[in-house]
Amino acid sequence: MSQGRVLLAVSGGIAAYKIPDLIRALKRAGHSVRCALTPAAGRFVTPLTLQTLSGEAVRSELFDPAEEGQIDHVALADWADVVVVAPATAHLLARMAHGLADELVTTLLLATRAPVLVAPAMNVNMWENPATRENCERLRARGVWFVGPESGLLACGWEGEGRMAEPAAIADAVERVLAPPSLRGETLLVTAGGTREPLDAVRALTNRSSGKMGFAVAREAARRGAEVVLVAGPSALETPPGVERVDVETALEMREAVFRALPRAGVVVMTAAVADFRPAQREQHKIKKEDLAEDAGLTLELVRNPDILAEVCRTPGTRTVVGFAAESRDVIEAARRKLRRKGCDLLVANDVSRTDAGFDTDTNAVSFVWPGGDVEELPLLSKAQVAAHLLDRVEKLREERA
Ligand code: CTP
Fold this sequence. Notes:
Layout: E1 5-10, H1 19-28, E2 32-37, H2 47-54, H3 65-70, H4 73-79, E3 82-88, H5 90-97, H6 104-111, E4 116-120, H7 124-128, H8 130-141, E5 145-146, E6 150-153, E7 159-163, H9 167-178, E8 187-192, E9 197-198, E10 204-205, H10 212-223, E11 227-232, E12 243-247, H11 251-261, E13 267-270, E14 277-279, E15 302-304, H12 308-314, E16 320-327, H13 331-342, E17 346-351, E18 363-364, E19 366-369, E20 375-377, E21 381-382, H14 383-401
Parallel strand pairs: 1-2, 1-3, 3-4, 4-5, 8-11, 8-13, 11-12, 13-16, 16-17
Antiparallel strand pairs: 6-7, 9-10, 14-15, 17-19, 18-21, 19-20
The chain binds cytidine-5'-triphosphate.
């Protein structure tokens, strides 16, 4: 248990009624908690409740001499190991994105050097508004952590995304933020997404991989202090904070990018769904039906792409290499054969026939298949959690070898 100092910044949203539960969860985990309120927060949850549960004086005024006398606002910002903003209203996110310091909470957020975790809560239309989207993107790019929001019935009567994450989920996220930088000094090379193999000027062969699993591994590795090179097939996903991203389109481009980064990588995690074949030739112009006989079909000739993972495994070095296996039947046996064929240190087997796991989902159900034949089956988890389990194993493997 990390036992950190949590500065809980509460803004004025109805979800503030859940903050007493959050304080309880944080205290149970062994953390010290101090609360700071925006001017509107006290209308949704009383300072006295927060004070009683946290066991600390609650601050709500920037320039109140009595409050400043107890602990001044800069000292409070310095005290925190992590600042949690819950609930984070659209207005507060906007003020954060613009670096305003117009009252106590925004001033603390600007003054602190601690990581910041926000738990947004608002009406679904406010959450989806491009202004809020842009503000969140800006904050993410600055390294602000997000937990939620979740989907469901909202206090305003609308249904959709905008509910604050549950206190237990926020407390879990605090643990992740406070975790020690266990991969500092290590460089991870991660491949993600599907490749796109052009057929003519407008068409391509590709697959359904979203890249979410690989991006989650990259995000988690960066959070653990690693330098991360993320070689990504076409994907609209946001680059995780602190990650060096190399965008590629085809398997051949991916291979080139991987081998360029390989000399500095101590750990390689290949989640990409690489196309095994590519069109033998790429037509320079669009293939036109009028150039073919009436009713004629079209036969494509495909040639093999290189197996990047197998080539990496054959490249001499002391790196740890993790492969993924997308299987739709006899998952474990097929994964065992794949592990032997490719020669990696660990293979993560994915059952892509499930609808709640695999391609383009936020959750994944995987098994870790080890070279000795052992299999560890994980329950259905978020891709972020799978990434955390995976890197725990990688760290252990590195320790055992050191
Ligand atoms: N892989 C790779 N290069 C390829 C194909 C796959 O680097 N040309 C990597 C993937 O990133 C993954 C692992 O190999 O880590 C297994 O990928 P998968 O698609 O499951 O297996 P394939 O080797 O393509 O075998 P098959 O499609 O026959 O199951």
